[in-house]
Amino acid sequence: MKLTVGPNQFFWKADAWAAFYDGVAKAPVDHVSLGEMVCSKRMPFYQDRIADALAVLQAAGKTVALSSLALVTLKRERKMTAELAEMGVEIEVNDLTALAHLPAGTPFSVGPLVNVYNESTLRWLAGRGAVRLCLPPELPLDPIATLAATARELGVEIEVWGYGRVPLAISGRCYHARLHARPKDNCQFACEDDPDGLSIATREGQPFLAMNGVQTLADSYACMALQADALAQAGVTTLRLSPHTGDFGQVCLLFRDLLDGRIAGAEVAAALTAQTPRPRLSDGFVRGARGADWSGAVVA
Amino acid sequence: MEIVCPAGTPASLRAAVKAGAHTIYCGFADETNARNFPGLNFDRAEMRDGIAFAHRHGAKVLIAINTFPRAGAEAIWHSAISDAATLEADAVILADLGLLDHAAQKHPGLRRHLSVQAAAANADMINFYAATFGVKRVVLPRVLSVPEIAAINAETKVETEVFVFGGLCVMAEGRCSLSSYATGKSPNMYGVCSPPSHVDYREEAGELKARLGGYLIHSAAKGEPAPYPTLCKGCFTAGDQSGYLFEDPVSLNAEQLIPQLQKAGVTALKIEGRQRSASYVAQVVQNFRAAVDALAAGRPMPAGLLARLSEGQASTTGAYKKTWR
Amino acid sequence: MQPAPLAIRTAPPLLAIALRPLPLPLLSAALTALTRSVAARHPSLFRRLGPYSTARFVLDPTDLPFVICLLPDAAKPQVALHRRAQQGDTKIAGPLAALLGLVHGAFDGDALFFSRDLVIEGNTEAALALRNAIDDAELDIGAELQALSGPFAGVMGQAISVAQARTGLCLTRPDQGEWI
Questions:
Q1: Same domain, B101 and B230
Q2: Least packed by Cβ within 10 Å: which of A43, A74, A186, B253?
Q3: Model-level pTM?
């Protein structure tokens, strides 16, 4: 199996952002999708660094794609999306608005936020030019296997969300701004203090979700360390690793070693949970259980 | 303007028609529609009778087939579409790309509406759906302000339908897995959000605690309203703050915005609530029908009477006013 | 704006007192007969219950001195009254007026639940299935009683009108005229 690094979901300072991709260039991954998926207001802070990052990654032998925004409502966002389609780089479509601007037949990737639940949708997208497709993170193994079989027939690469906080929802409302009692238009970038998202717990203190501006994520980091064999057997070609702070180079190495059979899934999970910040892991979605469940949990 | 009303049961359908609904939307009793609750929805014979009843009284029936077909089980959704055509539904409401393509190819004569579950939030995307799948109407996601809706209508020939009353999705519709994260049941695939099968109400220390999939969504002291534990309207903690981080337990009421929505070029006003009772549907429909009739006749809008039917007994105009964001 | 609260009346204390000495087995038998008659006249009600047609529902009119246990089971529904709390798959509790108003479509179940006039315990899905099935059946307990009374339907009708006027409870479905 191959490894993809998905677009960073969080708001990072431009220098940290650029340094992250310098690191990814050296990591054992095959494909990198980058750019802004969550909030168009963040773009001006690092958009002049994107060209350099693309060049560094391509020089390191990675294939690259630019991510489209997940929810496009404003005129400015529509313009951004249209311009993206004209840049001559492969686009990762995370909202069909981007597709509206791509001439039919142009090869593109499909991100995890596009609803691909069945063979007909997969065929239709492949017919439009989709060459790589990351499935929605909530899909269980059976539909994944069915879709992977269709994808193989169509020559489309199938990715599954392999590691990182799971994107669960996108909204018109900014929860970070709401939390700080600011209007969205004057959010003062309340999300920049939470480079991995802000954890949300129940009133009983049970960790549950995480907020990231207009996006809601799981508190837990999805981790396919214990499911890699099953996913490979199901015909999945690629695991997607989602950027986080901490030693992301180690994350990439661990998964590469796992896929090459050099270490076991349990060791990968142990190493990941020893990272700072310490993630809580989950893999329930793939197993058809609650998304929050983790198969590596010790049964008391 | 056209009033589009929910019907979870044949009784609700008849009640809505009697109360003056122009159009009813409903679904088959399976996972093909996004209100797949126990005891709700229509079998094929009930749908045939319901459509006949509505047509006799000059109302239309739209069938919502607006979940995303499961891989390996698409035939269930395909038969829902062909039955909708056979039963002479006035349109089907669809969200899935593959299903839209199937309907456009196999049943070109069956009118297609784009479900809110497709979350088509700008004119480029709406025009793309129209050009590709012949979609005639779009139900707009509840993330847009009235000026944004006006801007969309200025750029598209596709009719727009907007929600004016009832439950309010805080997230872009059809793009939310909060419920499956907590319960394992995906709204997109099974058509039920915050499913009652995973709800647990319990009296603890004088409070009524409502949990979903084991997560405490909210607790109500004696005498306080007890809203259904819908995930995005729960009370949570982030950092040093606790509260309704996503949305208060309110429901949408845009009754007073109807004149502005009309000016914005909206064709149809949609009422949420296929899980509500026939009496609720009748009351809401009467109010909205009176409002649009008053508007058409140039009379002032009647004052709102709907608050007590609302969830948690408080209401919001949602994203229609930009400050909501 | 503070919305008006739902006006749910509690049953007059006299009704509770009047019901106290009644032999429960007799009332149970009468209610079972009524339910079987309803089942015969409204088969779709039991179909709508789906997997919950074999569940045990406990209905608790909180202003009366007993609870009602309902086993829908389409072929042979059973109703039993008990003085004390009963175990069931699900319990729906509230003033008799709220329960009757729900049956007759005078109130909306969700609204009653939000305002906590109704309280559900146990299997929420089963309770919702029952509520939805009953809502669709458009029951009229008055008409059902008349149907059961055969030649005495007229007398029963008058008795129901009197009872309705005396207790203020909603014992019949408001007339909506004939719509075909």
A1: no
A2: A186
A3: 0.94
